[in-house]
Amino acid sequence: MTVHPTFTFAKSTAPKKGAAVFLVAKGGKPPAMAEEADPSGVIAKAIDVSKFDGKAKSVVDIVAPAGSPVDRILIVGIGDADAIKPSDWTAFGGTVRAKTASEKNVSVLLECDGVDISPEAAADFAQGMLLRAYDFDKYKTVKKDGDEKDEKPSAQKVTLMSDKSSACKKAWQTAEGIARGIMLARDLVNEPANILGPVEFAARAEALSALGVEVEILTEKEMKKLGMGALLGVAQGSVRPPRLAVMHWKGGKAKDKPVAFIGKGVVFDTGGISIKPAGGMEDMKGDMGGAAAVTGLMHALAARKAKANVIGIIGLVENMPDGNAQRPGDIVTSMSGQTIEVINTDAEGRLVLCDALWYCKETYKPKFMINLATLTGAILIALGQNRAGMFANDDELADQLFEAGEVTGDRVWRMPMGPEYDKMIDSRFADMKNVGSRHAGSITAAQFLKRFVGDVPWSHLDIAGTAMASPASDTNQSWGSGYGVRLLDRLVADHYEG
Question: Could you say which DSSP state residue 483 is in?
């Protein structure tokens, strides 16, 4: 079982045990306090021999330095002082955690010649260490060396030293809340589908009530009364009943309109009657990455007491090929009253989202709506796994999302929309069909969703390439990435808090 490190912020002093970490900008030199941990002067020689010049994330690791009270000294490069971005501090923290994971005690001096390390940067550094420590190993029964698991491992104790330690502690309350939200989203994506069905996922959302989030769970009966024929059509092939979880954080003024986030929560996607190939189907336990991100976001906002009114809605279903499953050619009626010809039952996420979007729009009259979904494989062809596809009907919202992505590292790229794509989903028998041709698959999916948002400013984030099986990074070695939590928390913090 992985035990996360604990963090203490303290005034700067010479480290006395464990691993001591010192930061050096490109072309700079270690801080004077490093000399106190290095009475034999081995740092200078190690830097010279390794040709260390402070390049970002480069490390000089000195084990058992002669005459030192500490066991290890790490000199960590942070690159050009003028080029450091906020997301770099989380990466630096992740780098340090990777190098010191086996240490019981780690001291980091958050002072560096030529660099003013703000309390927010210090908190981001700690956040990076915490996120890098995440490991979804709850179902492992043996250690990696083959021995049975025995005693519970002790938590690594990290002391972060700064002359702004009090302000750092305050900033850490916010950064830790966001980190916990990211890790919640990772947990949800990593859970196997036999453990996390729609009912169980809804219970995870309900648990946020402990943080002050108001949660309402709509059952199949209630959704039927509302006319959610599109969402219910996806669920009808599974023995596991669907749920719609509505999370409400009321941190703003009572008169302020809420901002809204909607997530696709297909807990497992076989493709239904239009069944997927067997190879790789196990990854479809992650087809609820959008719902995971929204749930993690609501945790983050509540944990840091965001001064905003926020709605989070997740549509939770399982898509199975049962005798009662919907068929290609079926026509369903959405909550909006618009009819949909189901051409492909594997294009199910948009059927879930369209009813959730309409319900959100009509019930809460939000300032904007953003939905997240592992919606199309086509977005991976277009953008790979380093950016999510962003579609929007509002330029200001799109710009805000792009900027938040560049700051946090949860990056997006805006994709085109337009009437020429919209007509590709017109149906001969219904108001629309749920897929177009092979071409522009991600765009036609966005055009489908756009028909359910009316005049509300809206963005659709296709996170199929970023929510799961994304490339390992300095702050994530997990299959589930928690993508979207940092992005949307930053959007709210920068533009929508009173």
Answer: T
